[in-house]
Structure formats: structure tokens, C-alpha cells
Amino acid sequence: MKNFNQLFGVRARLVTLGLAAGVVALPALAQAASVEVGGQVRYRGEADIRDFNPDTGTDVVNSQRARLSVKVDNEQYHGFVQVQDARVWGEETDTLSDASADSLDMHQAFLKVDDVLDTGVGVQVGRQEINFADERLVGAVDWTQNARSLDGIVLSRAFGDQGVVIPFYLQLNEQDDVSAVHGATVNTDEGLDGDTWAAGFHSAWTVAKGHSFQPHVYYVRSGDGDNLNLYTLGFYYTGTMNPVSYDFTADYQTGDSGDTDISAFLVSGHAFFTSGDLKVGAGVDYLSGDDDTTDTDNEAFNTLLATNHKFYGYMDYFTAFGSTADSVSGLGLIDWQLKGAYTVDPATTAGVDLHYFQTAESDDTRLGGDDTLGTEVDFTVNHKAGPVTLQIGYSAFLMDDAMEAKLFPVNADSNGTNDVSTDDVGHWAYVMATLNF
Prior knowledge:
This protein has helices at about 5-10, 10-30, 180, 400-405, and strands at about 35-50, 60-75, 75-90, 105-115, 120-130, 150-160, 165-175, 195-210, 210-220, 230-240, 245-255, 260-275, 280-285, 295-300, 335-345, 350-360, 370-385, 390-400, 425-435. It has a single domain (about 5-435), classed as Porin (Beta Barrel). It is mostly beta strands.
């Protein structure tokens, strides 16, 4: 299969346009019309008993993040810088003896031009959060205190009220010697083939009032070990016909990794009914799995840069798919869902989600040959008071055979050493407060 950059020359074109945008934008920003300072402080306390082991007790964890940002605007030229500190309480003993701030980072720093050289093309260059569609394949994972930002170039071309096309290039890992840039060496000089990067386009089109069709093509190339060439083609569709709303996702993956051919898919659909302050719905997510690890075909779907916390249960047992750290050993996932939400008052909402998990494939050599993972229920309450948002949640997971084999492979059949059985329940609760300013 030909290399993606040979087919379209996408890297060179996007980088060139990004450089042009930077040259044009910097002088304009130097005479900025407005400067806005903002920030966020977010605290989360968690009580964690997700290991199903009654002998370990409850793990209580406090974490927080702080963000400070500066936004500069001058007509169609914009700049944004955001510094972030994320930490777990106690990871630094105190600032007198340990002030290293391991998770202090430049979370975002980018230039944005609304219309480059009157072409109608907008460009955003630098480190930035990226969310496409419902974040099922590309998202910022805002739930985590660190969240995800990416280095790259994102273009946009709007076509009136009909839609927008968003080409992009993201540098995920750089293998070249960059000592000439900032005095530090990143791995060894591997050339272009050693890098890991992603490119493609996302688009969104209004096909009717209340209906959006969002096709996309994503490509990921990695030269770390066996070269990965992964193509993802699909779409996201969402619509509303009161009192019913719905969404549907379909994606197909093809490509290769070394001598292994990739052929995988994802389908997802949900429907909701709203009556007054009550909203109820049902849906299913299906991620294909690989039923035979001994052949040269890989049928396990890879969720790329997704915000998986949002979809497959808030307890985060299933957050990695199609990678070496696959949450279900490459067997894929079927997630049956029932959901409900109620608006208590304009500032308060309450919701409950029920998930029943199965693997898409079964294999005697993985997860004990079982395909039933278990049932999860998530309760959430949100309340907004001025600039502060309070969220409280409780979740429980009823473990089944495949989940037991995943977490306790030695005792999957005997349940002896850890005194764990499939009747035991995992628990997790949290409270989170967020102040934006």
C-alpha cells in the first residue's frame, strides 16, 4: 500500500500553509486589539474500590488541575497560550523539598488565522486540543486532569451554512535529532520513516434542519518497530425529529502493521425520547475483535485518539482498543446501553446509565474463553452555581466470567487466592468542583 504522504503530499502542504499563516499573523498580533486572561481550577476526590478485592479496602485519591490562559485577538488573527498544572495530592511532599511540578506543561499554544491570503481557508498552528464529532475517535479526554493536546496544523474551509471541511496534520512522535532546535536530543536520527504522525480530514454538513452528516478519513503512520499504516474511513450522523433524537456511527479500518493486514470496524447507534424534563434512550456500540492471534490478520478495531471515558462506562475498565494495552485482549467489545436523564431545575440535572458488556469474539486462549464481561451502572448529578460546576457520581460494576479472567487470570476458574468471585461488585464514587474564570 502506498504511503499516504506519497499519495497526497499532505505533510508538506499543511506545513507550508502553517508557516505562511504564522508569518502573516505575528505582526498583526503584535498590535492586538484585545487581550483576555482566563483560567480554571478543578478539584476531584475519588473513593475507588474498582479492583474487586475485599482485602485491599478503599483507595481515596484527591487530584486537581489549574489552568491559566491568555487569548489575543486582532480582527482575523488570534493567539492562545494555556499553561496547565495537574497533580495528585501528595505526589510532591511539599514545595520546600520537592517543587519539580512533574505535570506542569504548556497545554496549548497556537496561532490562528481566519482567512489566509484571502483564500477562505482558516488555519490553526501549534499545540491544541482537538475534538472531532462526538470524540469517539479524536478527542481531548477532558475528564482526565491532564487532558490531551496535540502538536499540529488544523485547516478549515467553510462552505456557507452548508458545512465545513477540516484537513489536519498531527505530529504524535518525533524521532529525529532536534538538538539544533533546543539543545536536547529526541531518540536517534530516524528520518521521516521513524516518526509517528496522523493526517486526514474531518467534515460536517447540514443535510436538513437538525441533521448533521460528518464523514471523515484518518491516517496514522508509525515507524516505531514494525511500520503501522492505518486508514480509518467512516462517518458520524446525528439528527433530531422532536421528541426523538438519534446518532449513528460507522467506521472501517484497513492497512497493515509489518506482515499483519488490518481489517476492522466499529458501528454505534443510539436513540432518545424527550418528554418535558425527562430524556430516556437506548443504544449499542460494537467494536470488532480479532478471533485468532496466530494468523496474519488483525480484526481488532483501534479507537485512535478517542475520549473513551465518555462512551464505555465511567469506571474506565474499557479505555484502550486495538493497541498493545488492549482492554479486552483484542477481542473487541459489545456495549448494550440504557440511559436516562432528568432536569431537576435549570441548574441541576441527574442521570443514570446502564451498560451490559460482552466481547465481540471469544477465544479459549484469552479471557478464559468467556465473552460476558459484566454490567455497569453509572449515576451522575450536575449542579451549576454561578461560575462553579459541581458534579457527583457513583458507579458499580457486577463482574462476570470474562472480566474475572481479565483481572484475575490465575484465579479465573478457582476464585481462591484473592477471595474474589463473580458475585462481588466493584465500586467507585467521586465529587468534582470546577471553577472557570
